[in-house]
C-alpha cells in the first residue's frame, strides 16, 4: 500500500514553492515525448466521441441541417443555392439568412462521402476535434511562463469530454465551426503579440474573418474581444507596429511587411463584406428582427401603461422609458447565461441543444471552476505576461454572452457557445492549484492525495458515464420529435407512392416539410429552383395545416397528418417515433 501511495505521489505536480498565493509549476523532465503521446490520446478520444454513431445520434437531421445540406448540394451541382443565387454571401433559409461558411465546407464533403447524415455532420465533428487540439496550443501560449504542460493538456481533455461541446460538435451547426476559427484566431493573436510575429497576426485575422463569416454572434463578440486583447497587450502591439511600420516606410513591399499589408487588406475586406450583407442584403435586419428581444410579446406593455397613468410629469416624456426597459432586458438576458441551473441542471430550453436530465457542465467541474476563477481573479502569477493572459481570459469569459443577451429566449447554449473553452481552462488551473494544496497536506500524511484522487475520479466517472447513457440511450427516444424524426421515412414512403395520386397534402404542424422533400426526394436543383413558394407547394405536394372539410371529392389525394390532426380518419400507413408514438398518419381520399 505504501509503495502504491508513493508511486501516485510522484506523479503529482510540484507544490507552489511555499507561496500560497502563486502558481509556479515546472515540468518533471521526461517531457515532450510524454506530452505528445498524451495530446495524441486526447485528440483521438475527442475524435471518437464526436464521430461515434454520428449519423444516427441525434436520431434525425433537423430542418436547419437539411437546409444546409440541400443548399450545399445545389451549389455543388449548379453553382447556385436553392433560390437560384450564384455563390451567395448569405444563405437564405426559412425567412432568415445563415452565414455561408458551413454550407461551403459541406460541398467537398458531399462530393466525397455522398448524401448521408454522417456527411452533413462531418464538418462540425471535425471542427470539434480540431478545437480540442487548438485549445492545447491556446493555453500553452496564454500561460507559457508556467513552463508546465499539464494545464494545456487538462484544458484540452476537459473540452474533449464536455457535454456542452459534444452536443454541438455532433450537429451541423454554424456556431461550432465559428468556435474553431475563433479559438484559433485568439491563439494566433496572443502568439503574435507575445512573439512579435506578423505572420501570426495575419493568420489570426484570417481565422477571425472566417469566424465572423461563420456565425452571427461572432460578429459582435470577436471584434470586442480582439479590441480588449489589443488594449491589454497594448505595449506589445505598439512595439509590433512600430518596428514593422518603420520598415514599411523604407521598403513598402518588402517581404517582411507583406503580412502587415495582407492583414489590413483582409480586415477591411471582411468589414466591407459583412456591411454589404447587413445594409444591402438586409441580412442583419432580418436576423435581428427574428431573434432579438424586441420581438418579445408585451415587453413594453407595463412601460406604456405606466406612461399613460403617470406620464404627466414632463421628465417622463423627455426620458424615453422604452430604452430603460430594453436595457433591463439586456442585463437580464446577459445574467441568465451565468445561472448555475443553466450550466449544471437544466441546460438549454430547446431539446435539440441538450441531453435529457443533464446540464451543459458536469457537477465535478464546479469546484474546479470556482478555484480556477479565484486563482485567476487574485492574479496569482509569477510573471506580468501571465497576468495579462489572465485578464484576457477573464474578458473572454465575460464577453461570451454579449451577443446572445440581445436575443429572446435566454439563456441560449448555442449562441453562448463562445464561453468554451474558458470553463475548461479555469478548471485546469483550479485542478493544478488544488493538487498543489493537497500535496502540501500529503507531506504530513500521504494517504490524503490518494484518497482525494480516488473519490474525485469515482464521482467524475459516474457522472460522465451517466451523461453518455442519457445522450445515447434516452435522448434519441425522448427528444426524437425535437429532431423532426420521421420526415425521412415519411418522404421516402410518399415518394414511392407519388404517381398513385393527383396531389399529396402534408401537414405543416412540424414546420418546414418542403426542405425534406427536396433533400430526401432527390429533386434535381438544376430543374427545381425555389421561387419563394416551395414552402407552400411544388410538384404534387402541398404543405398546409390539415382541415378535412377543405378537400375535394373529385381528386385522388393522399393526406399526411400529425396524430392530433387525423381525427379518426382511416389510416393507410403510419410513421412512428422510436418510442412508438405516432409522428405521421397517411390517409387516402
Walk me through what this model shows.
By secondary structure, the chain is mainly α. The protein has two domains: 2-174 and 330-475, no CATH class; 486-588, no CATH class. 59% of the residues lie in helices and 5% in strands. The protein has 24 helices and eight strands. The chain has helices spanning 2-11, 31-51, 63-78, 101-113, 117-142, 150-160, 163-169, 174-195, 198-212, 218-232, 234-250, 258-279, 283-291, 301-310, 314-318, 321-336, 340-346, 365-377, 384-399, 422-442, 447-478, 487-496, 514-520, 563-566, and strands at residues 91-93, 96-98, 503-506, 537-538, 541-543, 557-561, 573-576, 582-588. The strands form two sheets. A six-stranded mixed sheet has the order 4-5-3-6-8-7. A two-stranded antiparallel ribbon has the order 1-2. Strand 7 (573-576) and strand 8 (582-588) form a beta hairpin. Helix 3 crosses helix 23, helix 8 runs parallel beside helix 10 and helix 20 (422-442) runs antiparallel to helix 21.
